[in-house]
Design a protein that fits this description.
The complex is a heterodimer of chains A (54) and B (464). Chain A is an all-alpha fold and 54 residues long. The radius of gyration of chain A is 18 Å and the shape is elongated. The longest helix of chain A is centred in the middle third of the chain and has 18 residues, at 21-38. In chain A, 11% of the residues are buried. Helix content of chain A is 52%, strand content 0%. Chain B is of the alpha/beta class and 464 residues long. Chain B has helices at residues 7-16, 21-39, 47-63, 106-113, 156-163, 180-185, 220-228, 265-268, 276-291, 304-329, 336-343, 350-370, 396-399, 406-410, 439-453, 460-463; strands spanning 42-45, 74-78, 117-122, 169-174, 189-192, 212-217, 260-264, 295-299, 376-380, 414-421, 427-433. In chain B, helix 4 (106-113) links the parallel strand 2 (74-78) and strand 3. In chain B, helix 7 (220-228) packs antiparallel against helix 15 (439-453) and helix 10 (304-329) packs across helix 11 (336-343). Chain B is globular, with a radius of gyration of 20 Å. Classes of the chains: A mainly alpha (54), B alpha/beta (464). Chains A and B meet through helix 1 and helix 3 of A and helix 10, helix 11 and helix 12 of B.
Amino acid sequence: MADPFARAGLTLSREERARLAEPMRLLDGMLARLRAVAATEEPATIFPPPRPWA
Amino acid sequence: MGLIPTIAEAARAFAARTLSPVELTRSCLERVERCNATLHAFLALDPEGALTAARAAEGRWMRGEAKGPLDGIPIAHKDIIDVAGFPTTACSRVLAGMPAAPADAPIAARWRAAGAVCLGKLTTHEFAWGGPSFDLPTPPARNPWNPDHFTAGSSSGTAAAIASGMILGGTGSDTGGSIRGPAALCGLAGIKPSYGLVPRTGVLPLAWSLDHVGPLARTAEDCAILLSACAGPDPSDPASDPRPAPDLLSGLGEGVHGLRVGLPHAWLEGALPLTQATRQAIDRAADILRDLGALPCRIDLPPLQDLTDAGMVILLAEAFAIHAPWLRTRREDYGEILRERLSLGALLSAEDYLAAQRRRRALAAAIAEAMREVDLILTAAAVGEAPPIAAVDRWSGFKLPNLLLPFNLTGQPAISVAAGLGAGGLPVAIQLAGRPGEDALVLRAAHAYEIARGPLPLPPLLAG
C-alpha cells in the first residue's frame, strides 16, 4: 500500500493532506539529515544490560 | 513582600503570623475570579476544598506544627496530571466525560502531603502538544503580560496562573520545553528536573523517553521548594531514579564562586533569530555570574539542528505510538493542530526511530564530554518575547532549532529564568543546564543570578 497514512489506518481529507505538504517536507529534511549520520555510530545500545534481579 | 509573595516569602510571613494561609488563598481565589475570564488559566476550580485545606494549614502554623515551606501555599496542577476528585481531560474532547481521578498522581500527592493548597486544574495544550488551539473544549491560556500574546506551551495555564498571582506555584510537564518555554514567556522560573527525579505516574504521557514533570514558580528558590517536595523514587514509574532525592535546599544560598559556565557560541550566533534583548540578557547574565565569582567561557556543543532533528523524530514517533489507536477511531475528537501533528507520525519507520535514538546517544555523549570542562551551560530560553497568539506558526517546531529540547534528549536538569523585559515590554529569559543529577547546582546558580538581577515588575494586568 503506497499511502503511509492509509497503511497506518488514518483517513485524511484532501484539505488535511494539502495542509501537511509543507510539514511533510520539513520532516523529510530532518530524516535526511538523521539518515546521513545514523550508520556511523556503532555500537548501538538499544537495550542496556539488565540489572541483577532481586 | 510585594503584592504577590513568592512561596518563600509567604512561608516566612506564615511563620511570623503576618499572613495566614486562608488570607493568601482568598486573595488568590479573588485573582482567579478577576482574571480567569481573560487569561483562561483555570479549567476547574475547587474554592471550598482549597479553603478547607488552607484552614487546616493555618491551624498547623498556629500550633507550630507546619509541615514546611509549602504548608498553606496555593498551587494547582496541569490538566494532564491526576488530581483526586477532578477528571483529567488534557483539554481534549478525546477525554471528555471521563470520571474523576480516584487518586492523586505522586507529584500531586507529595505536594498535598507537604501542605500545599490545591485550587484546581490548569489549561494545557491538548495532550501537552497541540496548541495554541481554538477548537478545543476550552480556549488557550493568555499571557498576563499582554493577553493578546502567547504563553508558549504546553504548560500554558500553569504559567498564566502564576504570572497573574492566581497561584504561587504549579506543575508542568516538559517533553521538548513545555515547562521552560511558558516560564520564559511569562516571566517566571521553571525547572525541567533530571530525567527520573520526579515520577510520572498518573501523568498522561506524550513521549515516554523525553517526558519530565516539574514545577513552575516565580523564582528559582520557589522551584527548589516545590521540587524538593515532589522529587524521589516511585516504583510505579520504571524511569524513576531509585536513589533518594538529593538535598535541593540547604545549599541554595552558596552562590556560584568558582563554577565554570559554558556559553555555546554556535547556539547563540546564527542558529536562531535571537532578539537583541535576548542577546543582551545572555551577555548580562554572563557578566552577573562573573561578578559573583563564576567563570564564563565559550564551549562547543553539537549543532542545535542535529539535536532538534533527533528529538523531534523521537517525540513524533513516541507520541504517534501513544495516540494511534485514538487517532484511528476518534480522529475528529482531536483539535486540528494536534491531529495533524500526530498524523505525521505515520510517515516514520522503525528505521527512522532507531536512527534518532542512536543519534541521541552520540549527541548526549558529545554534550557530556563538553561538560567535563564546565559545570553549567548558559543559553537563551526563548528566541525573544512572546509573539501575538494570532501570529504563532503551528509548524515552527519543525522549522527552527529548539533551545530547550536538547536537555530532554540528555536528561539534564535545565531551568528557565526571567532576565528582564524586552522592547515590547514582555519578558525575556535565560536557561541554565547542569549535569544529570545536579539539579541542586542548577537551582543554586539560578537563585544567585535572580538575586543579583533584582526584582522584576508585575504584569500590567496586576499593576492597576
